[in-house]
Specification:
The chain is an alpha/beta fold and 292 residues long. The chain has helices at residues 21-32, 64-76, 144-147, 165-172, 191-199, 247-252; strands at 11-17, 37-40, 81-83, 87-95, 98-105, 110-118, 122-125, 140-141, 155-159, 178-182, 203-205, 209-214, 220-225, 230-231, 235-238, 241-244, 280-282. Helix 1 (21-32) packs parallel to helix 2 (64-76).
């Protein structure tokens, strides 16, 4: 394979913040374009809790960490440099007479580049339910298209996180033979909605959920309600609250929407990811609120 070899430079053409799929894809193109590229990766990929992926052509079933490892190897072939650090601050600066940006990282170093590409991704905030995080990425999942093919003959609970949970319960029935909608004291389906759920055999269980109980293997045994009742489910669909990693965006004055627009865009940018701040681009889930 054609290979570009460079030494690490004190001032790079581009610093890519975020070593997930989006950041690595950008770094690959940049390094192949002979741009000196530094990738900063804190090791906090959103799907790090999963032991395998689904729906990824040619890589179905691969561990997400293995995908990133393959990606880093490919990018490194063209001279990109990697640092396992967390970017904690960023600002426009002029270094050695060259306008650009300085990124402060958590080991105390200050790194410089002419341009920044931000691909820090999103953070999932799970409901306050005891034991939920222990099963996150396995028996507790957020996307039926990612996990549905593995449900088999399990009873799947849908933990209500908002009004969309009624529709999610209907959707999960595409994969699971038995579905239970857990209202979790957050929603109160209308009589019409309850009738529609009942017609399709979807049980509705009211009451706040406070804990999950582990079952055999990678399954759950059920959930525990605040009044002590238990509902038997073997897997649980949860829609977490999603937060944007916005500290660097705020440092740089990049606008951030409170809610995604109709295209799922959170940070306003053009078709190439260029933000309103000259020299700053965004990629991945900073641009769109697509599933991980």
């Amino acid at each position: 394979m054609f290979k570009v070899t460079r030494v690490s430079e004190p001032h790079h053409d581009v610093i890519v913040v975020g070593g997930g799929a989006a950041g690595l894809s950008a770094a690959l193109i940049l390094s192949q374009a002979c741009r000196s590229t530094l990738v900063l990766d804190s090791g906090e990929a959103r799907n790090r809790f999963d032991d395998h992926m689904r729906g990824y052509l040619t890589r179905d079933g691969l561990c997400p960490a293995d995908l990133l490892s393959i990606g880093r190897d490919e990018v490194a072939e063209f001279g990109a440099v990697f640092r396992t650090v967390r970017a904690v601050a960023a600002r426009p600066t002029t270094v050695d007479g060259r306008a650009g940006f300085t990124v402060d990282v958590d080991d105390g170093e200050h790194l410089h580049a002419r341009r920044l590409l931000l691909a820090m991704g999103l953070v999932d905030e799970l409901p306050d339910v005891e034991g939920l995080r222990d099963h996150w990425g396995a028996a507790v999942f957020h996307c039926p298209y990612c996990r549905g093919c593995e449900i088999g003959d399990r009873t799947v609970g849908v933990l209500a996180c908002g009004p969309e949970s009624v529709g999610e319960a209907h959707l999960v029935l595409q994969w699971a033979p038995r579905v239970v909608l857990l209202t979790n004291d957050l929603i109160d389906p209308s009589p019409r909605e309850r009738s529609g759920l009942g017609v399709r055999g979807i049980a509705v269980v009211d009451g706040r959920v406070v804990a999950v109980r582990s079952g055999d293997g990678d399954s759950l045994a059920g959930v525990v309600h605040a009044d002590g009742r238990e509902t038997a489910v073997e897997a649980l669909l949860v829609s977490p609250t999603v937060h944007i990693r916005r500290a660097l965006l705020d440092d740089l004055g990049v606008p951030v929407r409170d809610e995604p627009d109709e295209w799922g865009a959170i940070v306003p940018s053009d078709d190439h990811g260029k933000t309103e701040v000259p020299g700053v681009w965004v990629a991945g889930n900073l641009r769109t609120s697509t599933p991980r």
